[in-house]
Amino acid sequence: MYAVYTACKEYAGAVTALAAAEKALTKQLSSSYEALVTARNAYYTLSDTLTASREALKKVTALNKLGKAEYSEVKDKQNDYEQMQLETIDTLAAYNELLYAFERLTCGGATKYLQGVGISTRTGAGGDSYAEVDRINEPYYYINTEIENMVFVFGVSIPDDFEPEITHFEIWYEGVQIGERTPISRQLRHLALDYGETNELTVRFFNDTSYVDQCVIDTSVARDVLKLKGAVIKTETEKKVGTYTVTTSSLGRVSTSALTITPDRKTGIAYFSIAYGDGKTVFTPEPVPVEDSFTYLTLLIQSLDGATLTLYDADKEKLYTGRFDTAAQTVMAVLP
User: Fold this and answer.
1) Of 316, 318, 260, whose CA–CA distance to 291 is shortest?
2) Care to name a GO molecular-function term for this sequence (predicted)?
3) pLDDT tens profile 209-259
4) From its phi and psi, is residue 316 left (phi > 0), alpha (psi between -120 and 50) or beta?
5) What global pTM score does this model have?
6) Pure H helices in 106-224
């Protein structure tokens, strides 16, 4: 009975300790979240102020060029703008520290809610770094942010054997091109975008100056596959290895044909044999040198469409099985 009493007492103590720990953690989470939101709002406010300062600088610079503003006024606005840039970067850095502290506190549980707002000095929009991660064998894009320069970096990876060939890309946001057309071997660097109601960018792809395709991507995802309409790559099943001619002559009621095969250079073809239909009817018991014509009764082989060729090298070793392309009068070899 005493053992039960002791166990109950220990259990009650554990429950009290757990409740206290939960309360402390909840208070810490609440405090951290409030600090995070405050820092974010401060950054947004400074960003708006920075934009206004930039516009004021542009305006006074234009007035100075017209002779309606003193250089000292331009200098003052320039100093204000530079100071505002520094304050914005400091605020952004503070927000970044709070963000990742909150992420650690939640053991990664906040990632899906904070996706797209990672703002370390060199980070992907969804938290990916420049370090190589899982390899993708399809066309894909990646986005990184360099806060120290207040720019985002966009790049694509296209497999070497991808068809149609892609050499350049462009980025468009709400009908406005961002930056210049960029070779796929390089990255596009641009000032960080202030997205409106959508996080979507359109990426257009080109082969030199020819348009190929385009994809819409979600910038909150730092790295993803590009859904490009790749060409269907046809596997070659045969190749041309020569040409042929057929000369037909009549002697009374009998018609004969003389077949001459001319191999292409460097094919190594020196001999040939011909079978017909199911391949069991052989018209050339021995391989025929390509220098010689094969003469046959036209009645026996009315069309070369149904004939099967076997092509040999100078040692009479088999090189290919082939056929006659009667439309082009070429000899086609079946590839292994």
Assistant:
1) 260
2) efflux transmembrane transporter activity
3) 888 899 998 877 878 889 887 644 445 678 899 999 888 887 666 677 888
4) left
5) 0.34
6) 111-114
How far apart, in whole angstroms, are the C-alpha atoms of residue 121 and residue 126? 14
Residue 159 contacts residue 138 (beta carbons within 8 Å): yes
- Helix, strand, coil percentages (3-state) for the chain, rounded to 5, are 30, 35, 35
Q: Using alpha carbons, select from 87, 26, 78, 88 the residue that is nearest to residue 54.
A: 78
Tell me which residue of 217, 159, 206, 218 sits closest to 181, measured CA to CA: 206
- For residue 333, the surrounding DSSP H or E stretch is strand 330-334
| CA–centroid distance for 197 within its chain | 26
Structural domain of 26: 2-112
CA distance 281 to 104: 80
Angle made by CA atoms 55, 56, 62, in degrees to the nearest 5: 90
CB count within 10 Å of CB 152 equals: 22
Whether residue 202 contacts residue 243, with contact meaning beta carbons closer than 8 Å, is answered with no
The token pair at 46 is 């400074």
Residue after which a domain boundary falls, among 78, 112, 146: 112
- What's the gap between Cα 100 and its chain centre? 30
* Count of domains forming the chain: 3
Identify whether 183 is preceded by a cis peptide bond (ω within 30 of 0): no
* End-of-domain residue from the set 225, 256, 288: 225
Look at the alpha carbons of 100, 102, 108, 113 in this order and tell me if their dihedral is positive or negative: negative
**Distance from C-alpha of 326 to C-alpha of 272, rounded to nearest angstrom:** 17
243: CATH:
2.60.40
* Mean pLDDT confidence for 100-109: 70
Predicted local confidence at residue 25, as pLDDT = 75
Backbone angles phi, psi at 260, to 5 degrees: -125, 125
